[in-house]
Amino acid sequence: MAIRSPSLVELHAFLAVARTGSFRKAADALHVTQAAVSRAVQRLEEQLGVDVVERSGAGVRLTPTGTELRRRTEKHVAALEDAALHLRRTSERMRLRLSVVPSLGTLWLLPRLEDFRALHPEVEIEFRQYTRDDDYLREDVDLWIVLKHGARQQWPRQVAAKYLVGRDIVAVCTPEVARGLRRPEQLLDKPLLYHSSYRENWTLWTQAAGIPLPERWRGTGFDLAINLIEAARAGMGVAVVQKCMVEADLASGRLVMPVPGIASTGRGYYLCRRRALAAHPAVDLFSAWVEQQAAVSEPASPAARRARR
After folding, report:
1. pLDDT tens-digit series, residues 155-178
2. Cβ contacts of 183 within 8 Å, gap of 6 or more
3. Cα 227–199–193 angle (5° rounding)?
């Protein structure tokens, strides 16, 4: 069937002129130039073979044909716009915008993310820049995964936060460095590696292991967890790190825990969302999935479950 109706571009321009009574105001409403609106209306008149507006020094008014055209088309064009807006919003609800601590994102989340993609291919994920002291007011982020000290953290009223992983720290090294190590105090004879922002992690670990840490102990510090772990992988010494960060290394045998022992720092990674966030299927799907991953990664003891409440 031959198409006789004008295009939506021409109809939108015409209806904007009809509503505003001005080419200039119509252009402002459509965010285009006045010339573009004038050309679109002119094309419409050429396609129909009749004038739909009368132009004069006093302004613009509809001809009888223009009035009839508006009556027959305005409601239907508005319905098309409404349908397009609804579909666009539905699509946006399946887009998830994440802000994640880079170290956790690289070492813990990304290796698992293909599982989520396989389960929910309809969800489009976008990673947004992580800001350490985020106020959770950004409109370009739907979910945050941030590092906080749970016991000390006062969450803003607009934020709902749930602990995921990261409180537990362990001592790790390569199998070669671990050779001959049997007791916790023997680790202190090896080069000690630490996160420069959390040097006290070694104190926490030795206290949990029941051994004293020399008052003036020395080691090599790294300002990024990924660099600290890479140093341990390279055999530079023994590192105290969050267990969740080295799960893959421990599973593969690339790193080992030379002696058993886990300490808690009180810090951990929290999943955060704005309480006022409207219904968002992608957020709900991801939140349920990542909480399941965290439960597998860090099974909670009864005491740990009580501490999380």
Report:
1. 888 889 999 999 999 999 999 999
2. 259
3. 45
Residue 94 has pLDDT above 70, yes or no: yes
Gap between the Cα atoms of 158 and 148, Å rounded: 17
Q: Is the pTM of this model over 0.70?
A: no
| Per-residue model confidence as pLDDT tens digits over 175-209 | 999 999 999 999 999 999 999 999 999 999 999 99
Nearest of 240, 230, 237, 255 to residue 198 by alpha carbon: 240
Q: Where are the beta strands (DSSP E) in the chain?
A: 53-56, 59-62, 95-100, 124-128, 143-149, 159-165, 168-172, 192-195, 220-222, 238-242, 263-264, 267-274
- Tell me if 183 sits within 8 A of 259, measured CB to CB: yes
Q: Residue 26 CA to chain centroid, in angstroms?
A: 38
Contacts of 22 (CB under 8 A, 6+ apart): 59, 60
Q: Which of 98, 126, 133, 147 is nearest to 245 (CA)?
A: 147
